[in-house]
Amino acid sequence: MMMTKQARSNYDKFPAVRADERFGACLTGWDAIGAELGRALAAADGRAAAGAAAGAPGIEGPKYLAIECYNGVLDGEVREALRVRVEHALWIDTAEAMRPSAELDAFFGADITDDEIFGYLTRYNIDAYFDPARVAAVRERMANAAGTVVVYGVGAAYLAQCVDLLVYADMARWEIQMRYRRGEVGNVGADNAAERASLKYKRGFFVDWRICDRWKKKLMPRWDYLLDTNKAGEPKMCTGEAVRATLAAAAQRPLRVVPFFDPGPWGGQWMKEVCDLDRSQKNFAWCFDCVPEENSLLLAFPNATVEIPSIDLVFAQPRALLGDPVHGRFGDEFPIRFDFLDTMQGGNLSLQVHPLTEYIQEKFGMHYTQDESYYILDAGRDAKVYLGLKEGVDPEAMVAELREAQQTGRFDAEKHVGVYPVRKHDHVLIPAGTVHCSGADSMVLEISATPFIFTFKLWDWGRLGLDGRPRPINIDHGANVIQWDRTENWVRRHLVDQVTPVASGDGWREEKTGLHEREFIETHRVWFTGTAPFDTGGGVNVLNLVEGREAVVESPTGAFEPMVVHYAETFIVPAAVGPYTIRPYGEVEGTECAVVKAFVRFNV
User: Fold this and answer.
1) Residue 46's pLDDT band (boundaries 50, 70, 90)?
2) Structure confidence by residue, pLDDT tens digits, 428-454
3) Are residues 409 and 543 in the same domain?
4) Beta strands in 473-578 (DSSP E)
């Protein structure tokens, strides 16, 4: 493997946002958490609504503690720890009022689908999990209770209706996936903890996480406490006020989310060295370095660090983070994704294609598609990408050979697909509908729109996934969206190293590297030996330090504390920041560095 000298990095795997100093420490351990909830309940005023609902206006009802949970909480730990530490007259698990597991399977069947990978983004809300008759019976029991009622689980605040104290047990998306893989949890209301992890992930992505996120957004302004149980046996709790204030401050300064790394059948060795990962692992294939829907955000309190999903920042501060034009177009979704694909000393990615916008809307309910690009962070001597099609390709013959390959295990990709050598700092554009994959011995910074699950694999080089099963192939979907006119002449003119100078100044120069006119993301590369000026221009910027060991991001007016970034780190500059600068830092001060910056084009 060829490794450039500056590639060795002090890459930060656990970046954190400093919690608002006004709120001091967070609580750690079940004893401290239970004691605080008891104190807060004692101070709370009971609601009269339950008595009023029972036909006795003016009669004070019980106090309600709702412990609202996201999908993936380890109930065996959290529920049992709190049951013995919070004094209560009645404890209700929301599962008591939910539809039976088989009924939920049928109810969400059209959104879950029978497909191995793809479902349909559900339109349902939190009430869909619940059986109306069971809900009525449980609410009557709660209204007649004398003392504190604790309602625990997904939909606790829905079931309780009137809440004196709201605790939100949030879960990082990546930890949920790990728990799926270990068989520790299933989907909401489903008796499927032992089901294959990929099927639980699909149901989570298309159903549970959509519903839980819609409900979370309504509850966030009301959180009294945030409960972090992402690390089993290490619970932490802070006030909802502290979380909201910290997120508001985070949207005014550059930040990083917590990357995660995963092995794969084609994975390589580059990230082990650059990111200082576990050398005993066979490989690392992916790193999600900036995918807020999947990544975490660490909030650093004086005594401990609290982990929340980074999507919470998007939900809480969409306009400050994204900017009005981006928020107006995408709502509270973060539309730009940066991730790594490591094939150094590994294998080819699967040959694949992404759906056109109308196809993803019709088939899956997603309103924009996965346009993307490969920025080559590093490359071996024979590195290449597969991109577009050969001149004169016969669509029917290619599709027929792809189908036959599923039986024979043989497909001549280079007979049908264009092949292009790549070097460090090349940038290859991949609008949806373009057949593509990275070859072996490449380190790719993938810059794309966010809906990352919508990849149609056409050919996987006859190999198995890490679970020993063939990875699902999607030839039918792929054949419906391949743009057969994107052949070699078109690809060379439109997709390979489309670099145009933009501006320059003392110690810096800026150039446009893409993306294609069909893609809403624009990318610029800025080379600098001195201080380079930047401006968010009213929209969120996402950047990666693609050359140089360290750089520092600063405010010309001192609006935020300087932030040091390291080689290969992705960082977010919220729209609210406005002007900022980047310059070499530390050992590389005065040497040439470079960042790639992505942002949403407003005129698309």
Assistant:
1) low
2) 999 999 999 999 999 999 999 987 789
3) no
4) 500-505, 508-514, 521-528, 532-535, 541-547, 550-554, 563-566, 570-573
Q: Residue 18 domain-assigned? A: no
Q: How many domains does the chain have?
A: 3
Q: Are residues 79 and 162 in the same domain?
A: yes
Query: Could you give the CA distance from residue 596 to residue 160 in angstroms, rounded to a whole number?
Result: 49
* DSSP strand pairing (570-573 vs 541-547): antiparallel
Considering the domain architecture, whether residues 418 and 565 belong to the same structural domain is answered as: no
pLDDT tens readout for residues 407-423: 999 999 999 999 999 99
Radius of gyration of the chain (CA): 25
Structure tokens at 152: 């625990």
CB atoms within 10 A of CB 590: 10
312 belongs to a structural domain: no
What's the gap between Cα 265 and its chain centre? 22
Q: What is the pLDDT of residues 544-591, one digit of tens each?
A: 999 999 999 999 999 999 999 999 999 999 999 999 999 999 866 678
Buried b (16+ CB within 10 A) or exposed e, 296-328: bbbbbbeebebbbbbbbbbbbbbebbbbebbbe
Please indicate, yes or no, whether residues 207 and 271 belong to a single structural domain of this protein: no
Q: Which residues contact 405 (CB under 8 A, 6 or more apart)?
A: 411, 459, 462
Same domain, 103 and 40: yes
Do 484 and 517 have their domain in common? Answer: no
DSSP state of 105: H
Cα 370 to Cα 67, 294, 434, 520: the distances in Å are: 36, 16, 11, 10
Backbone phi, then psi, for 601, in 5-degree steps? -75, 130
- The per-residue pLDDT for range 178-190, each reduced to its tens digit, is 999 999 999 999 9
> Looking at the chain, how many residues does it have?
604
Ranges assigned E (strand) in 266-344: 286-290, 296-300, 305-309, 336-342
Q: Which residues pair with 582 in a beta bridge?
A: 532, 553
pLDDT over 90, % of the chain: 87
Chain center to CA of 544? 17
Cα–Cα nearest to 512, from 526, 499, 503, 531:
499
In what side-by-side order are the strands of the sheet with 456-459?
A: 417-421, 384-389, 436-438, 351-353, 456-459
6 has pLDDT over 60 = no
Q: Which residues pair with 457 in a beta bridge?
A: 352
In a domain, 122, yes or no: yes
DSSP element (H, E) containing 315: helix 311-316
Residue 541 placed within a domain: yes
75-83 helix and 30-43 helix, angle to the nearest 10 degrees: 50
DSSP for 21-35 reads GGG-PPEESHHHHHH
Task: Count each helix (H run) and each strand (E run) in the chain, helices first.
Answer: 20, 31
The pTM is what? 0.94
